[in-house]
Amino acid sequence: MALLNRMDWYDLARTTNWTPTYVTEDELFPPLMSGDFGLPQDAWEKYDEPYKQTYPEYVKVQRDKDAGAYSVKAALERSRIFENADPGWKSVMKAHYGAIARGEYAAASAEARMMRFSKAPGMRNMSTLGCLDEIRHGQMQLYFPHEHVSKDRQMDWAFKAYDTNEWGMIAARHFFDDIMMTRDAISVSIMLTFSFETGFTNMQFLGLAADAAEAGDHTFANLISSIQTDESRHAQIGGPALKILIANGQKAEAQKRVDIAVWGAWKLFSVLTGPIMDYYTPLEHRKQSFKEFMEEWIVAQFERSLTDMGLDLPWYWDIFLKELSETHHGMHMGSYFWRPTVWWNPAAGVTPDERAWLEEKYPGWNDTWGQCWDVIIDNVVDGNMAMAYPETLPYVCNMCQLPILGTPGKGWNVKDYPWEYNGRLYHFGSEVDRWCFQQEPERYAGHLSIVDRFLAGMIQPMDLGGALNYMGLAPGECGDDAHNYAWAEVYRALRAEKKAS
Amino acid sequence: MALFPLTSNFEGDFVLQLVAVDSENTMDEVAAAAAVHSVGRRVRARPGQILRVRRQGVADFLPRAMRVSESGLKPTETIEIIWQAPQH
Question: What is the assigned CATH class of domain B3-84?
Fold first, then answer.
């Protein structure tokens, strides 16, 4: 039997809105869940998805993708890539899986909200496929690391991380809860798919795929490239929704959601991806600096996406561009110095050659971040390890939940952005974090940061042991230097050379 | 006498840190408590210089002998710990 071409029937087949008679429209689509922004059903029926795919097409393509990624894994299982990989690269995998895998699974629920509650039939169809995507991503990114669990306890955090109160996971949960778990269908489409996925998953999935291939980890490279092909499809769910909102006088509300989500995504990637690209990836395998990658793949593309859509650049764009040279250096120093509190082993990445690279990519690095690293390096070289670890908590932001930091040394510009609300003093890492919080204070005000929990006596005993226990970091899981401080030998040799001359 | 949390923003360091002091500590004692978490860890000592305490965004330092309980500082408020060369 001859089949009709897809485009001969697609629009009709997904026109699945009807006029309810047994219940009201608000009962069918509760505004709190559907986020109709006061627009009637027929306004949402104009939603025109740019990527049209049918279920049979989807299944066929996805089957091929799965077959590709799983067969590469099977073929390379005996290659001992994990055993032979640079420890910095293993840390990349551990950080990625822990922060991402269960978040992907949670995203299936967010996609399901659009699938059920959106008033736009086209969005419901795309989100059905998006939901299946996210289930696939969760499953793959739990299955792939599983083969390494017996070799390395930290790999268990691929599954475990989301159930803990580890500080980075509190930050990740706070962000994803905000943009996708506690928002209506339309806001999810703007904040998760348009802002986070269009804007930022290229960062994690394209950049990291290139680094993985360079590092010889073809299993990981194939896995995340396979995921990225789904992301690039379902990331387009938000665009048509934005067009409808703008056409119906709702630009300000749409812009606000974009601005909040983009900022939160930036902060999360500054701690997750920045250190990976500029410090963990072995020098010889680095393709671009984090800043260069951001400027080429995120800034330029996202600026175009926003203006194409009829939106403005976020009001804080200049602050964001400035932070591209700064924030992730602090996030790296923080996660390195507080390394027992993470589930991977941070690579210091500060040998003389690596510092020369950092200085070239970030002029002034040695006079700023380098000044703090000089002290850390001296302590490691001298064996003064007690001073190479912290004895207190960094103060974290009440919006992004990440340490409040800035540029140290000769460019010292560290600053708190406080705000008192209902008698409680909140602290923020930037003017933008504070602005995000102030858009809807009641949404965020009740949340306790890791420092708030410590001060409330929820972490006992009030010392490092108590904190590690609270964060769920069992012995054998706490982070330490990825290379067991082998890099310090270069500095010892330099010292000996200097002494001899 | 009560435990009093403050947020230390130490000159030359990269991050704000929680510092627990006593409400009867002087500003010199507060500076010393903050220094424990920065000097020798990520900030080099500056021999001959002293450390002064000020509120964020305020140019004047709080008097060295002033107690936390007299300062009007709020719990967790951010203080800047600034190196000061000897006055001649």
Answer: alpha beta
